[in-house]
Amino acid sequence: MIxxxxxDGTLFDTSTTIxxxxxxTLQEFNLPQISEEEICYGIGQPSAQFYSSISTNQAPEDxxxxxxxxxxxxxxxxxxxxxxxxxxxxxxxxxKTSDNKxxxxxxxxxxxxxxxxxxxxxxxxxxxxxxxxxxxTKGNLIREVLTEFAADFAIVIGDRDTDFxxxxxxxxxxxxxxxxxxxxxxxxxxxxxxxxxEVGYYVHWLKIFTQLQSWLEEFLLQNKIxxxxxxxxxxxxxxxxxxxxxxxxxxxxxxxxxxxLDDFHNPSEVRNSGSEPIQSYIDNxxxxxxxxxxxxxxxxEGKIIDKELTLLDLDSNSFTLKKRFSIDEDTVVILEGVLxxxxxxxxxxxxxxxxxxxxxxxxxxxKIRDVPKYGQEFIQRYRQKYIPIQQKYLDLWRxxxxxxxxxxxxxxxxxxxxxxxxxxxKLSK
Length: 429
Fold this sequence. Notes:
44% helix, alpha/beta, DNA polymerase, domain 1, six-stranded mixed sheet, six-stranded parallel sheet, Rossmann fold, 17 helices
């Protein structure tokens, strides 16, 4: 995987050096001071444009002298107080694996880029450096990177619309570093990261999704509607990963619908019927007949669906939730939920993903997600009911054995693929 980073505003907090450098230089040249916000806004622009913006009405020779003085102070402050964004070094350490190539594409000079990554102690993580100084654009730089690595895919990470447009120009997914200097420019980008750790989260998931996309493109050649399952125990991240996959596939040009099994719950009196609570939940929690008859059976037969269903609102235990399901021959269907890989559902899936976490991690996440809403006593329901249900499901139906892709999702920000079955076995369905 090729991972292409912008430098200023993405890895390096340039405000720690350029702001004091500009302010001190303007003072020396007896020029009007400008605000920190104005200086930061210019970070990432071509250097000629940046220096012109902070020295209006200056003769070219004066701008040249101003530029050299700013560069002098910038390098001085770089060694004294320059900083990476918090978490960047950990991000690079995590991403630097044998099958990842890390690249910097920046508007700064090669000399400046090398100085920053050397002083910040991260030069060892990068396989290639590209500078767009001169007439070269970031879009062209990215094409050069792909050519040099003989690759047709990469992930681009940056904080400005120029980074996004360069990725878009090359048909590549983009992660916007909204903690950088171009927050207002990133509203249309693919994925927005609020900090470097979240950048790592998106990179890891996008890497997984590109593998899934390869299977999907092959499967669609059969002119069938693909049904992808996302399964795991409670709190394993099924819903969030399903929505993230939906977002990724939509950005790649696919039509996608996510179906949540939770929307097909039976009323509480049905779920809790029977003398044995665990088996009763397994048998009665969901209206499996409804989801099969109304959705899965028709689409498995290649039929087009456009219908509204009235479903159970869990909080009120009433049938007041209305959802529309529009599925045609071009739609990718993602069905996520617990207890999925068993009949009558299992045979519908063309690709099965399982998110693996321990039951200790289930309790940790339940404390964060459910206790604020339902109270501390809800943890006992996990111990006495939900975990035994999931354990029985794991023992009886062995969903990880059925899965095409298993993801260790214990560290939510750094999911790891731990098993991948040959997908050709599924293409015969």
